[in-house]
Design goal:
Layout lengths: L4 H24 L2 H33 L1
Helix pairs in contact: 1-2
């Protein structure tokens, strides 16, 4: 089951906001803060990729 349109749109919007936060943090915050923000961004990207992979697996199973 794919992520709903609302969830996908919210995640894309969150990615943009987190990228902005990361850019600002990289200039003036501690390394641990920058690292934490980068991990959040990575987690969102991983979630989207993982969901796409699960959709492909579900489709393959349905075809057999």
């Amino acid at each position: 089951m794919a992520l709903s349109k609302q969830v996908t749109e919210s995640l894309v919007e969150a990615q943009g906001n987190i990228r902005n936060a990361l850019a600002y943090a990289a200039r003036q915050e501690r390394t641990v803060t920058v690292n934490a923000i980068a991990r959040i961004l990575n987690d969102i990207e991983t979630l989207q990729s993982f969901d796409e992979m699960l959709d492909k697996l579900d489709q393959e199973i349905a075809e057999t």
